[in-house]
Design a protein that fits this description.
CATH topology of the largest domain: Tetracycline Repressor, domain 2
Radius of gyration: 18 Å
Order of helices and strands: HHHHHHHHH
CATH architecture of the largest domain: Orthogonal Bundle
Structural class: mainly alpha
Helix content: over 70%
Number of strands: 0
Number of helices: 9
Strand content: under 5%
Number of domains: 2
Length: about 190
């Protein structure tokens, strides 16, 4: 069977859904093929090993979670001192919105993190992916002139991971507004 980019994307999206819904133990060639609605054996033609499936998952999740073209972080009103914090809060809210809107991608990431505790090859791939993501976030913040240095951006990652896990699973407070939480978080971490 000839390989093509559309089929690979279809299979990668199916793998994301399988990982999200069934976890690592359910992530098999057969499950990916069934989820994608393709003949049995198709995914093994595209991914030669479990490590290749994991790499494809990470690549596809990255693609799915990118901001849509033309969507910029809104400029915030306020004083010079607070405007940067408010723009940064808007940026963080956008991240939370993208992750909660693509529930399968976000849950698949959490499943990969759990799987990384048991599989060194997953840990290695995920560690590299997360470090690259952090470096990109730090560079983006610096380039955009947003407040916060690397240590503060790491704190935001810790906090957003907890917020997302809460919102995507069993919320501690069903009535809490994630946007308000993110705004308060940005103001507190950045000292405003």
């Amino acid at each position: 069977m000839a390989r093509n980019a559309e089929r690979r994307t279809l299979l990668s999206d199916a793998a994301v859904r399988v990982m999200s819904r069934q976890g690592s133990r359910g992530l098999t060639y057969r499950a990916i093929d069934a989820e994608a609605g393709v003949p049995t054996g198709t995914s093994s033609n595209y991914f030669g090993s479990r490590d290749e499936i994991i790499a494809a998952l990470l690549t596809r999740i990255s693609e799915r979670l990118q901001p849509e073209s033309g969507s910029d972080v809104p400029l915030a009103e306020g004083t010079e001192d607070t405007r940067g914090v408010e723009v940064f809060a808007a940026y963080l809210r956008d991240i939370v919105h993208r992750l909660t809107a693509d529930r399968d991608a976000a849950l698949a990431l959490f499943e990969l993190r759990l799987d990384a505790t048991r599989r060194p090859s997953v840990a290695e791939a995920l560690r590299a992916w997360r470090r690259d993501g952090l470096a990109a976030d730090v560079e983006f913040s610096r380039t955009m002139g947003l407040p916060g240095d690397r240590s503060e951006i790491v704190l935001f990652h810790y906090a957003l991971d907890g917020l997302l896990l809460d919102r995507l699973t069993v919320p501690i407070d069903d009535d809490a507004d994630p946007d308000e939480a993110v705004t308060a978080l940005a103001r507190r971490i950045l000292g405003h």
